[in-house]
Amino acid sequence: MQYVSTRDVSTSYMASQAIIQGLAPDGGLMTPFYIPKLPGKALEDLKSMSYQHRAVYIMKQFLEEFSVKELTDFAAAAYGPEKFDTPAVAPVRSLDGNTHCLELWHGPTCAFKDMALQMLPHLLTASLTKREEEKTVCILVATSGDTGKGALEGFKDVPHTRIMVFYPRDGVSQVQELQMVTQEGNNVGVTAVRGNFDDAQSGVKRLFSDGELRRTLADRGFFFSSANSINWGRVLPQIVYYISAYCDLLRDEKIAPGQTINVCVPTGNFGNILAAYYAREMGVPIGKLICASNSNNVLTDFIRTGVYDRKRPFHNTMSPSMDILISSNLERLLFALTQDTQEVKQYMEQLNASGRYEVRKPILERLQKLFQGYCCDDRETQRVIGEVYRQHDYLIDPHTAVAFSALDQYRKESGDDTPCVVVSTASPFKFCDNVLGALGVTEVAQGLDALDQLSAKTGLPAPAPLSSLRNKEIRFTRTVEKENMVDAVLSMLV
Ligand SMILES: N[C@@H](CCOP(=O)(O)O)C(=O)O
């Protein structure tokens, strides 16, 4: 399997190179040259396997350089009982006959990012060995809340790696911030940026393409890579859970073999829903991909009109991980839909220069055959949390609530009640204050006391990785201007 840049197919790369580099040298995203099809009986075979075995089988289709033994070891370490609080790893909880919630927050940081960020360090360090790389890799991460902690936890104390996370200072939840600034490990750094997530992500991309900085760091024995979903090693493990969810529904006889399902995904950087698209391309019977956004509804508008326009107000919402106006992974979808790197390059250049592009009509038609876009604001998000709790005795976080709202809008508009997998991306305990508000609590406790309050209100235990934050020391307090992110990197990599 060869990988190419979404902006130039003339050079191809092995998976290990794609994973090590994170981003292609031309600024494009490393992408498989083609998406392999699952063999005919694969879903039937996979349905009786554990999550770990499913992961090995699916990832192997994309990773010829890695042996089954290597991948089996990685999956055992990444998804074992010391990391995930349920043997199912990514369980599916059915709310009614055709609404199934895929819970992706049972890992060490209580968000879906663990599904990939527990695996990526294994893929990356094995890739370094395969390529005989002697320098230390410095992982740069921009986060709107969840990726940062997921990456820190995945890479903490991993030999030959350093990790620096940038987060928007006033753009993450209290719990998310505490998770990051108390991170343990000798190779980690966390810096707040005065700005929003897009500023942090653009800043990281600038660091990546700063030739002089790269030379300075090379002299010090370092090079950059990424743990954001621009890295193919992030997207690949995310494909696994869509296939796994389909297999669970088959195994539990909630659907019949070959039956079509829809998926509804809350997404900001477009990596999560892109993974669902790849699962569909591999042959999973997925009908519609319902893309759910909060008030930062740039993707909703794009899917409806073909115009991507990031020049709009940026909203800090109660679903902060999706507070994003530049959705990096859309570039991979454009590559798939156009099959034309020149066209992708033009769109990306227009986005950089003017903040806007419009895709051609045939591309829009292809997009709309597969994707539906819906959005909702904070008021609706809170209403949905309350409603789902009352109707199903099921507690969801604000990101998942955005997805439930999108599904509801889609069903009302289309009349399509195909079974749907709704992706639940984070534990509600990461967003206690807003979740408590949604349950009608008017006096919300301060800081981590809100964990106990939510627990008392619902009878659900707060996840151990969040309760234990109480005993942790705050290690990182630095804030930089977005123009000065380079200083944080240089002072860490001495
Ligand atoms: N939702 C993210 C933003 C970065 O997205 P990624 O999937 O590219 O890592 C976050 O929580 O940080």
UniProtKB/TrEMBL annotation:
Enzyme class at the top of the EC tree:
lyase
Q: Which residues carry this modification: N6-(pyridoxal phosphate)lysine?
A: K113
What catalytic reaction does the record list?
Answer: O-phospho-L-homoserine + H2O = L-threonine + phosphate
Is the keyword Transport assigned to this protein?
no
* Keywords tagged on the record: Amino-acid biosynthesis, Lyase, Pyridoxal phosphate, Threonine biosynthesis
Q: What positions belong to coiled-coil segments?
A: none
Cofactor(s) for this UniProt protein: pyridoxal 5'-phosphate
Any GO CC annotation of this UniProt entry:
cytoplasm
User: Residues in domain Threonine synthase N-terminal?
Assistant: 2-79
User: Its pathway?
Assistant: Amino-acid biosynthesis; L-threonine biosynthesis; L-threonine from L-aspartate: step 5/5
Q: Give the EC number.
A: 4.2.3.1
Query: What are this entry's molecular-function GO terms?
Result: pyridoxal phosphate binding; threonine synthase activity
Its GO biological process terms?
threonine biosynthetic process
PROSITE patterns reported for this sequence? DEHYDRATASE_SER_THR
- InterPro entries recorded: Ser/Thr_deHydtase_PyrdxlP-BS (IPR000634), Thr_synth_N (IPR029144), Thr_synth_N_sf (IPR037158), Thr_synthase-like (IPR004450), TrpB-like_PALP (IPR001926), TrpB-like_PALP_sf (IPR036052)
The Tryptophan synthase beta chain-like PALP domain covers: 105-425
Q: Family assignment?
A: Belongs to the threonine synthase family.
Role of this protein: Catalyzes the gamma-elimination of phosphate from L-phosphohomoserine and the beta-addition of water to produce L-threonine.
Instruction: List the NCBIfam families hit by this protein, alphabetically.
Output: thrC
Kindly provide the name given to this protein in its UniProt entry: Threonine synthase
Q: Which organism is it from?
A: Flintibacter hominis
